[in-house]
Structures are given as C-alpha cells and as structure tokens.
Amino acid sequence: MNDWNADLSQPLPLSTSSWELPEATETQVITLPIRARTVPVQSYFFNLEPASQNRGSDSAARAFLSSGSSKPGSKKPVKRPARETRTRIKPPRDVVKLSDRLFYALQPPLETLLASNTIEFPFKPFDFQYSGVAFLFPRHCAILADEMGLGKTMQAITSIRMLLRSGYLKNVLLICPKPLVTNWQREFALWAPEVPVSVVSGSHAKRKWHWDNQHTPVRIANYELMVRDEERVTQPTSPYDLVVLDEAQRIKNKSSSTSKVIRNIPRQRSWALTGTPIENSIDDLIGIFEFVSPGAIHNAMRPRELRREVKDFVLRRTKDMVLKDMPPKLIRDTELSLTGEQADSYQQAEKDGVLKLNDLGGEITIKHVFELVLRLKQICNFDPATGSSSKLELLRSDMEEVAASGQKAIVFSQWVKSLDTLGDHLKPFNPLAYHGRIPSNQRDAILQEFKESPDRHILLMSYGAGSVGLNLQFCRYVYLFDRWWNPAVEDQAINRAHRIGAAGSVTVTRMISAGTIEQRIHDILESKRELFNEILSDNRNPASYGLSKEEIFGLFNLKTPEGTISKVA
Amino acid sequence: MNQNENNRNPHFGFLTIFEVPSAGFGGGLLITSCKGRPLEFHCTAPVTTNRAQEILYGQTLKSFLFCDQIGNALIQKAKSKLDVIVTDTAELAELQSSVNTPIALLDLQATGPGETPHEDIDASLARVVSDNPGPALQWLQQFTETLPLNEPFERIQQAIAEAHQIAA
C-alpha cells in the first residue's frame, strides 16, 4: 500500500514543448454599402374648393365634383352604389393634361357624386342613363345618339342640372322642334324641378324682349325661330355656356339657313341629341359635327377613319344593348314571290310607268316617281284585278298557328284599303282595325277589347295611327305587311309590342316581294344600315334613315334635273 | 372618438403596390375625404431591385421595397394629415412600425397586389394593425357608408392606367 502511494507521489515523466506564435495579422473587412435610392414620387393635389372663375376646359366640371363635400360632423348617409352600378366619369379625349385627366379618373362613382350633392330623381335612372350623364358631363363637344325611347332628354337634363349646380353654367339655350317645346318643359319640371326654364315664343316684340331681358338659366326655343331671330340669337349679351340641339338632324344640311344661324351662336359647349345622326349619308353626320366640333370630320374620310374620329364625341346605345331584361326581338325578312296575277300586273304597271316618266323629260318631279312607287307597292300587296296576294297567303297560314297557340298579332300597312281587304280575308281570326278612319273616341275601346278578348287574335293597324304611344306588349307577333319609307317609323311600330314589360320574345316579320320595288327599297335601306353600323355601332341594330330624292329617282334609273342617277338595285 | 375628433373630417390614405411586368413594382397613394373625394394622389414609377439587394435582403426584399422604398416615399409626400391608411397589400402592414397613422389591412383573400377583389369590402374586413388604433375603426365604418373600402383602389388602378397611357 505504501509502495503504491509512493509511486503516485512521483511526478509523471511528461515532456513539454513551446511554440512562439507569430504576431497576429488584422482581419480585413470589406464594407459594401447598400444604397437605397430615393424613389421619385409624382404628386397631384385636388382642391376641394370650387375652381377659379376661369373658363378652362373642365372648370365647371371641377366645381361640381368638388362641391357637396361633407361638412364637419355631417352624418347624412349617402346611398352606396353597388359594384355593378358604379358609373365612372372618364376624361374626354380633348382633356390632355395628365393632372386634369387624373382629376376625372380619381373621382368616386357618379352615383356617389349625385347622392352627396343631394340631386334627387323622380325615378331611379337606368345604369346606362348614368353612363350617358357621365359621358355628357365632362364634354364640351358631344353627340348623344341613343335609340329613341332610351331617355336622351332625361340624360341631357340631368347633366345640365349637375353643371348648373356648379354655378359656372349659367345660361343654356336649348333648341328643339316646335312640337317638342312643351315636352321639354314638362321633362325639366320632372327631372330638374328647381331649374327655372323659359320659352322663347310669341310675337316679334315679345321674343325681342325675351332675348334681351329674360335671363333664366335655361331657355327653350324652336328651330323655326333661329332664322327669324338671327340677330338676337347670335348676338347675346354674353356667350351661351351651353347650346343643346334636340333632334339635331335638323341641321344635317350645313348649307341651310337654320344650320348657319345655329353654328354662329357664340357658345362654350355644344351638345347634339339625335336618334338618327345618319339619315341618308355621312354628310348628315358631318352637318351635325359642324355644330359640335367644326372640321373634326369631312367626307373624304373612309368609314374606319370616321369611326375613329367620332368615337370620343358620340355615344350611341340601342335598346338591345342596354335593356338586358328585354325579351329578344326576332326579325324575319320574308321574301315572297308575287302570284302569277300579281306578277303580270306588276310588270305591266312598271313598264307603262317608266315610259310615262321618261316621256316627262325635264318636267319630271319627285311626285311623279313617288306615284309610280306607290302604285307598284299596292300591287305587291294585292293584285288590283283579282285580289290575289302571296303576302295574304303567308299571313293566313301564320295566323292559324298564332291563333292556335292563343297568341295575338299586329299587322301594319300604310294603306287603310289594304287593311280593309285583309280584314275581309282574315275573318276567322276576329280582326280588329285601328287606323285614321276610326274615330278617336272609339280607339281606346278597340285596344281594350283586343287586349282582353281571347278570341281577338289580330289587330290591323296603319303606321300613321298606331306607331306612336301605344303599349301592346302582350303581342308576340308583328307583321309589316308593306314597308314604310323610313325604318324609324317601322321601329316605332315594332316597339308597340317590343317594349319594357313585353311578355316574351317578339317575332317581327317584314314582308318583301322579291324582285320588286320593295326589294330595291329594302336593299338601299339595308346598305345604309351597314354604313351606320360601321361608323357608329358595333352591333346590327336597326338605325333610322329614309330614302333621299336621288335614291327615289334611282329606283328606276331615272335622271333628275340635276343629273344622272345610277340604278341602285 | 372625442368631440374634437367628431367635428373634423378624417383624411383617408389608400395605399397600394402594383406590379408592372418586367419593370418592377410601383406604388400609389390616394388621399380622400370621408365622402371619397380625391384630395391628393401620389404615385411612383416602377422600381426594380438589383442582384446585390436580392442576395442581401433575401426574404425581406419585398418588405424593404414595398415599405422602406415605396410606401414611405409616398406617405412622406402627403400634405394632408392622414388619419388612417388603408392598404390592400399585406407587406405594407409592416409600415406600422415606422408611421404613427393607424394602418388598416384589407382582407382580400385570393387577390394580390394590383388585383381587384370580387366583393365589396366593408370595415368588418379591415384589420387595424396598430396597437393604438384610436378612432380608426369608426372612421372606416363612416367611410363605408358612402363607398366600400376597396373602391378607391379601383380608381388608383384607373389613374395608373391613365398615367401609363400618357407616358406610352
């Protein structure tokens, strides 16, 4: 045990070594600065106070958009527009400065603006009507070319109302056809009851006093007065802030006195309202543009060029485009061969008629041509000798089906005589007649009976008596037994059945006698429809246009006193 | 909200980041009144990052770019005193650490920067990031009586599109 302890107490035989470290070198640090560049910011400031009194392109608009701002502590709720009904005011093309364009782009939806400016409406406008207001509101040059019945009047009045609220738009001159003056008064009372409106009318002295002394914010005058009161209307004490033309196709002929006077009216803004900006040719649109934006378009432009140029100035909607709840309207162009008897009568009448017209030489007038057209159209309805009619045969066959399914049909013709003949042949369907020879005090009862009696399947109507103001939306079938000169009238007729509240799809049958004057007229109108659509519309909806004098002469390859007209069919 | 706060119009800042393909990210700040009227608009040109920044910032790159670079630059340009900042860009919530104004982040599920949500956003779908939100939530509710909170972002998109159109 002692030995063991002695061994442990012995030092271990360890050997040690020493190293001398070289002097430590300093670690090299590389610093990489991460430079954060300052991000440039573009800033735009919008004044909530009304804009200065300058007459800049958008000062009035700015004023309205800036007004109605909430007062401190104001709790009045503003109705919030749903996502699908937010209408944006888009900057027009003639607003060039980015800051001005952003001013429009950054505005809340139109519905919010109207609500916070406490603009109330008697009825809730349709979404497309808000869009129309958003279109007109910022524009100095605008054509609202909506199809009839879509509320151009309401859209114009609301835009005027908004601009008047700004305090910058003080004097508006509205020019319309004489029969529509009272309608405009009524519409202003409905849609802008707080806006004072006066009508220029009466004797020369009374009108003179009115032009010189009456300073209501809105004046209404009719086209006929423009030439008579030229001196007054073109030399107001201060330029008009806005001149609105209703049924602006009235100035389509730019060399007419009325057009010249209207173009000379000093003004800041020019708006044109029309459902038919092209009635006959591009010249019609150019004539309207001479008022709205002189020189913007000319007739050397190709349709595509025109389309590009007019795009920012013109807003055109049709019922089919905007009234999504409307049932479809099916147009059926039915080309029918004349019966043998009709064909013989037709050829003889045309041959004799053209010979007579040629014999007239320089004495020929449009009346002569018109008489021949009417004569031929009548033969297309019924053969004068035998009464045979291919159109009647089709109609009778169709009516079997219409009546069997418990439906009702309206048949339009331009002649009461044709309607009478139809009445005789369609007795099994218990026809009712509604035309100019029916006394006014009996008409309502006829319509009532047609609506309520399940046995009455057919209503025979003349275009003149039945095309405007009637609601026959319970009818699913419309027949145009013969064609009117101007599709605007045909559209009015069709719209008796195809309107808001229609029970279902409406089938419109346009009867055309193949190879006849009806076919030629139809072709001209269709080519105009194509032209119209090419320039103003993406769809194939009917536009409104009629036949010009040259085209009526051209139906028979006749010469007019002004020169040769080529045959069009 | 005390009486003084009740009696003044709060100013809302709507802040967003948008991506411009192959050009980077930009930002827009729309300042409105309680009724949604525009008071100021600020925007940046698209900003790109370089390779060194991508390596060094790693996963924090977006936060650096969106908050430090773009968001701060935009907020600093505001002349109006902002009472609440609303953003549709999640990364911008981090801005709260550097600004006093309460930031409200919209819950835009399934949407990214610059995309428009499918539904209207109410105050209930806004999350106030700040620990001290004050009256921010009430102001947001007040705003939504007039417009949904995502509506101003649609305007910013329109304005950016206008600016690009002019620049093109």
Question: What report would you give on this structure?
Answer:
The complex is a heterodimer of chains A (about 575) and B (about 170). Chain A has about 575 residues and is α/β, with parallel strands linked by helices. Chain A folds into two domains: about 60-65 and about 80-315, Rossmann fold; about 330-565, Rossmann fold (3-Layer(aba) Sandwich). Helix content of chain A is about 40%, strand content about 15%. In chain A, strands 4-5-3-6-7-2-8 form a seven-stranded parallel β-sheet. In chain A, helix 15 (about 340-360) packs antiparallel against helix 16. Chain A starts with a helix and ends in a 5-residue tail after the last strand. Residues about 50-60, about 70-75, about 540-545 and about 560-569 of chain A have low confidence and may be disordered. Helix content of chain B is about 30%, strand content about 20%. Chain B starts with a helix and ends with a helix. Chain B contains five helices and six strands, in the order αβββααβββαα. Chain B has one domain. Chain B is α/β, with parallel strands linked by helices and about 170 residues long. In chain B, strands 3-2-1-4-5-6 form a six-stranded mixed β-sheet, with helices on both faces. Chains A and B meet through strand 1 and helix 3 of A and strand 2, strand 3, helix 2, helix 3 and helix 5 of B. Strand 1 of chain A pairs antiparallel with strand 3 of chain B.
Helices and strands of chain B, in N-to-C order? HEEEHHEEEHH
How far from one another are the termini of chain A? 143 Å
Helicity level of chain A, as a percent range?
40-55%
Task: For the largest sheet of chain B, list the strands in their spatial order.
Answer: 3-2-1-4-5-6
Strand proportion of chain B, as a percent range, falls in 15-25%
Walk across the major sheet of chain A and give the strand order. Answer: 4-5-3-6-7-2-8
Uncertain stretches of 5 or more adjacent residues of chain A: 49-58, 69-77, 539-544, 561-569
**In angstroms, what is the radius of gyration of chain B?**
16 Å
Number of helices of chain B: 5
Uncertain stretches of chain B? none
Oligomer kind: heterodimer
CATH class of the largest domain in chain A: Alpha Beta
Largest sheet of chain A: 7 strands, parallel
Tally of separate domains of chain A: 2
The CATH architecture of the largest domain in chain A would be 3-Layer(aba) Sandwich
